[in-house]
Amino acid sequence: WRTKFRQAMNRADNDAGTRAIDSLINYE
Fold first, then answer.
1. Which domain holds residue 25?
2. In this predicted model, what pLDDT tens digit does every residue of 1-28 receive, in sequence order?
3. Angle at which helices 2-11 and 15-27 pack, to 10 degrees?
4. What per-residue confidence (pLDDT) applies to 20?
């Protein structure tokens, strides 16, 4: 699922998207 998540991160290339992704990465 990391590959899919990475694609979403590239799509949401903004502060909000980066913050949500950072939270999920920290959660793991």
1. 1-28
2. 577 777 776 665 666 667 777 777 777 5
3. 160
4. 72
Question: Can you give the pLDDT at residue 25?
Answer: 78
Query: Residue 14 corresponds to which amino acid?
Result: N
* DSSP secondary structure letters along 1-28: -HHHHHHHHHHT-SHHHHHHHHHHHHH-
Q: What are the φ/ψ torsions at residue 14 (nearest 5 degrees)?
A: -150, 170
Cα 13 to chain center, whole Å? Answer: 9
- Our count of domains for the chain comes to 1
Q: In 3D, which of 19, 28, 27 has the Cα closest to residue 9?
A: 19
